[in-house]
Amino acid sequence: MRRVAFYIFTLFIVGLDSSPIFAQKRIDHKSLYWIRYYNTINLNQKWNWQTELDTRHYFTNSRQQQFIAHTRVAYKPSSPWYFSAGLTGSWQRPQDPYLTPRPSTPELRLVQEGSYSQSPLKNISLNYRIRIEQRFISNHPGVLDENHRFSFRHRYRVQFSYSLPKSAITFRASDEVFVNATSENLFGEFDQNRVYMALEKRISPAFALELGYMHIHQPVAAKNLLFKRDALRFTVYHTLNLHSSGI
Fold it and tell me: Residue 176 and residue 158: Cα distance in Å, rounded?
């Protein structure tokens, strides 16, 4: 896991180290707000089913930028490890909030991930996650058919969490690097970097609320462009336990 963390950190530095190149690009900066519902159904002690619904909008005029739906089945064989696999549907709208009409570009992803957690100190935890995505992206807005393009992407995330004693509040900070696979280099094409900080407040065994800030740094080489996104994300976590008496 230390090697994985070092690799993620190296990718992050390499991505930011190309700032002189990015300085020559056109910069597209937007501010957004994301609203997310995250449901977890605990089937038993080791298996659960996760569903996410995430709508993303521009602050400028509240027009939708993207809608994403995730569904995954997760397995936890032992305390430090966690594995899951599932499907993701994405509907991406134009990057210009003023553009009309606003057709969506559909995308289907097959997703597999594994994570490892450790607690070096009391109330502190570290999580290392690797997610692999097989992406089928439409070439025509509004429909996903046989005329699509395929992309293979890896995502590497390191997350730090601190639980405030006797407050039911958790602070999180994470850094996630996205890497596109190519025919020349399976792990070599930097896609984007996401830095995230958030506070979560658990209000009951079934519900928790989270408010966080995310900065996204994504170069678009084909258009000589650099996307910079600042996103305020609000999440409702909802947990159901089917293996206990109270759901």
Answer: 7
CB-count exposure of residue 176 (10 Å: 0-12, 13-18, 19+):
buried
Give yes or no for a contact between 196 and 174, defined as CB atoms under 8 angstroms apart. yes
Q: Which has the higher per-residue pLDDT, 3 or 179?
A: 179
Mapped to the 3 state alphabet, what secondary structure does 96-151 carry?
A: CCCCCCCCCEEEEEEEEEEEEEEEEECCEEEEEEEEEEEEEEEEECCEEEEEEEEE
- Residue boundaries of the structural domains of the chain: 2-241
For residue 188, how many C-alpha atoms fall within 13 Å in the half-sphere facing its CB? 5
Number of residues written out for the chain: 247
As a whole number, the mean pLDDT across the chain is 88
Per the structure block, which two tokens stand in for 149? 């393009």
Whether pTM > 0.70 for this model: the answer is: yes
Lowest average pLDDT, out of 63-72, 110-119, 146-155, goes to: 146-155
CA distances from 63 to 33, 55, 96, 153 (A): 10, 10, 10, 28
Token pair for 24: 């020559």
What's the confidence (pLDDT) of residue 98?
92
**CATH number given to 2-241:** 2.40.160
In the predicted model, what is the mean pLDDT of residues 61-80?
A: 95
Neighbours of 145 (CB within 10 A): 9
A 10 A CB-CB count for 229 gives: 19
Contact 154, 7 (CB under 8 A): no
